[in-house]
Design brief:
By secondary structure, the protein is α/β, with parallel strands linked by helices. The chain has one domain: Rossmann fold (3-Layer(aba) Sandwich). Helix content is 42%, strand content 18%. The chain has ten helices and 14 strands. The strands form four sheets. A seven-stranded parallel β-sheet has the order 3-2-1-4-5-7-12, with helices on both faces. A three-stranded mixed β-sheet has the order 9-8-11. Strands 6-14 form a two-stranded parallel sheet. Helix 1 packs across helix 6, helix 2 runs parallel beside helix 3 and helix 7 packs across helix 10. The longest helix has 29 residues. The protein is globular, with a radius of gyration of 19 Å.
Length: 296
């Protein structure tokens, strides 16, 4: 396959590009600077000439502003715009290209866990969107893929959980305090964290590209979500450190505000129902095995 990728220089984009090339596929990165070989210039805020996608079998859209930061009104607007505008730009170009030449046939977009704080409720792709900023972003983000779906392109929106990878994702910023013996549960520790190993995020993306039964929202989270207290105990055990310094909820809210509430304190018990039904086999369904693989 020949696959066009936005966000190819990011944490997930680099890993996906490497995996696709290893598997014998061709990749083209969409970039916002002067393009080099196997690159195409694009601007998320401007229409993309659909002819640029005529030789693509698939598009993987991963670009968007990082949600880590102080969630001021301006920051939140930038996060929302980067996802909605960029996705709509790519989906519209993919739709026009498909109408003109039948390519690309697949449009895979990253998406968020927009279920809101749902306690112990198992959350499948059939569950409704929740409340909060991330839920709002996720709903509008997925809706922006509509032009491609309406044109007949198979669209897959990957709702990605807490990614565990040595060089990025949620794991990297946790390592220093835990290695210093300063780790501990966050808030009550009872909230579910729906984690997923980087290998399985990339595996799910490649599976989605080639599996015609997958379309619409798809949860990308390990089939064994754990409570925060279990997560921190497991990470501490893998690092041979104690986990005896809890971070109270009020401290999280004081330090990180709305972001801390939604990313650290809210509970998401996500079930990868569609992936499992389609036959995807998780490489890491066990948290300790996933952490040991990432941390050597």
């Amino acid at each position: 396959m020949r696959i066009f990728i936005t966000g190819a220089s990011g944490f997930l984009g680099q890993a996906l590009t490497g995996a696709l090339r290893t598997a014998g596929h061709g990749t083209v990165a969409l970039v916002r600077r002067s393009p080099r070989a196997n690159e195409v210039l694009w601007d998320p805020e401007q229409p993309l000439d659909p002819a640029r996608l005529h030789d693509s079998d698939a598009v993987v859209h991963l670009a968007g502003k990082n949600i880590a930061g102080r969630w001021t009104a301006e920051f939140k607007r930038e996060v929302l715009d980067s996802r909605v505008h960029g996705t709509r730009t790519m989906a519209t170009a993919a739709a026009e290209s498909f109408r003109q030449c039948g390519r690309p046939r697949v449009f895979v977009s990253a998406a968020g866990l927009g279920y809101g704080d749902r306690g112990d409720e198992p959350l499948t792709e059939e569950s409704s969107f929740g409340k909060g900023f991330l839920a709002e972003v996720s709903q509008l983000w997925e809706a922006a893929t509509a032009p491609a779906a309406a044109a007949g392109v198979r669209v897959v929106c990957l709702r990605i959980g807490v990614v565990l990878g040595r060089e990025g994702g949620a794991l990297k910023p946790m390592l220093l305090p835990f290695r210093l013996g300063l780790g501990g549960k966050v808030g009550s520790g009872r909230q579910f964290w729906s984690w997923v190993a980087l290998d399985d995020v990339i595996g799910a993306m490649m599976f989605a590209l080639q599996n015609p039964s997958l379309r619409g929202p798809v949860n990308v989270a390990a089939p064994s979500p754990v409570r925060n207290e279990e997560f921190v105990r497991t990470l501490a055990r893998v690092l041979h450190r104690p986990a005896i310094f809890p971070v109270p909820a009020f401290v999280v809210r004081s330090l990180f505000g709305e972001m801390g509430q939604e990313l650290l304190l809210n509970s998401y018990r996500v079930v990868p129902a569609k992936l499992q039904a389609a036959g995807y086999k998780f490489r890491y369904a066990d948290l300790e095995a996933a952490l040991r693989a990432q941390l050597g």
